[in-house]
Specification:
Elements (H helix, E strand, L loop, with lengths): L18 H6 L8 E6 L2 E6 L8 H13 L4 H14 L1
């Protein structure tokens, strides 16, 4: 059965994952997540060593990018612009 709980965003942009969910998913300090946002939904996906786990998500993102008319050049330009800012 899915676990449901509530949390809130801190002034530093941090969100606490409730202890019950951390324990159920065997999460630990330093674990990394992929963050996906679509409309009013934010999805955290634990990052595991295998790229195979990400293929369905990568395919979905590629489909969304293609439908939006994004090209590889658009993505490269966005990456360059973002790197200049930091």
């Amino acid at each position: 059965m899915p676990q449901v709980n509530t949390t809130k965003l801190s002034s530093r942009g941090q969100v606490v994952i409730p202890e019950e969910i951390r324990n159920a998913m065997h999460l630990h300090s330093g674990d990394k997540f992929l963050v996906l946002c679509e409309n009013d939904v934010i999805i955290l996906k634990t990052i595991s060593p295998s790229v195979e786990n990400f293929k369905p998500l990568i395919n979905k993102i590629r489909k969304i990018a293609k439908e939006a008319g994004l090209t590889k050049d658009d993505v490269q330009s966005a990456i360059k612009l973002s790197r200049k800012k930091y």
